[in-house]
Amino acid sequence: MAERGREFYKMCGSGNDFVFFDARDQAPGALETPELIQRMCARGTGIGADGVVFLERSAAATVGLRYFNSDGSPASLCGNATLCTARLAVELGAADPSGFTIATDAGVMAARFRDARPEIDFAPVQELTADAPVRSGAAERRIGYARAGVPHLVVEVPDIEAVPLASRGRELRFDAALRDGANVNFVAPGPDGAWYMRTYERGVEGETLACGTGAVATAAVLGAWGAADGPATTIVTRSGRPLVITRGAAGRGPSLAGEGRIVFVGRLREVE
């Protein structure tokens, strides 16, 4: 049974939405069971979210977070959830906006507010390849792969609106050539110099309106393709909101800047 009356924060990061709990002084308890996470995240019958996040104390960083997908499975990293964690930590007075750290299951990340929006530093992208070992489909120009905390395929297409995302995304997400499966990001260049992205996300098993780690992986793959060579890459998410990935200095990972918005504060009642 859920903790009746427990306060939560509904947050949005460029269209990725989350249910946040401040668990620094009160343990999650039953809130972290897969069954209850699924009920809270259910749209129409629950609060509705892509995932549940617990803001916690950390011996290794200013604050820590634990993230669960909407199906109840844990994920080592979620970029937009980490941006939202940065916003909530500052909102609650737990962090200095000029600079602090966040402990995730993928490691400790530096964070700060720049131009009134949160920004986080990733570790260097791993396993980057411009040519992933999966077969491309009709109208797919090329497929790359990168691990930005979690695994991602990046598929260049001429028109993201024409992508059969539910079917093709699921097919690629479970491709036998990938040892852990992958999130799947379909990208196409826009007339404004930005890249436009749609994501089929693991754990949600469907399209989400944004994906922070996907944007970081996409920027890395675009660089490997020679399609994005500037200091920063703008990825426009399905929500229409941009994520900006800034290339790190030699030996350092990229930074991700985007939205971290508190939509409303509520209290749990009948989600058992």
From TrEMBL:
NCBIfam families: DapF. Belongs to the diaminopimelate epimerase family. One of its GO terms (molecular function) is diaminopimelate epimerase activity. The keyword Nucleus does not apply. Gene3D superfamilies: Diaminopimelate Epimerase, Chain A, domain 1. It comes from Gemmatirosa kalamazoonensis. It is found in: Cytoplasm. One of its GO terms (biological process) is lysine biosynthetic process via diaminopimelate. It holds the Pfam family DAP_epimerase. Substrate binds at residues 16, 69, 79-80, 183, 201-202, 212-213. Keywords: Amino-acid biosynthesis, Cytoplasm, Isomerase, Lysine biosynthesis. This is Diaminopimelate epimerase. It catalyses: (2S,6S)-2,6-diaminopimelate = meso-2,6-diaminopimelate. The active site is at residues 78, 211. Its EC number is 5.1.1.7. Pathway: Amino-acid biosynthesis; L-lysine biosynthesis via DAP pathway; DL-2,6-diaminopimelate from LL-2,6-diaminopimelate: step 1/1. One of its GO terms (cellular component) is cytosol. Catalyzes the stereoinversion of LL-2,6-diaminopimelate (L,L-DAP) to meso-diaminopimelate (meso-DAP), a precursor of L-lysine and an essential component of the bacterial peptidoglycan. Homodimer. The record marks 152, 201 as: Could be important to modulate the pK values of the two catalytic cysteine residues.
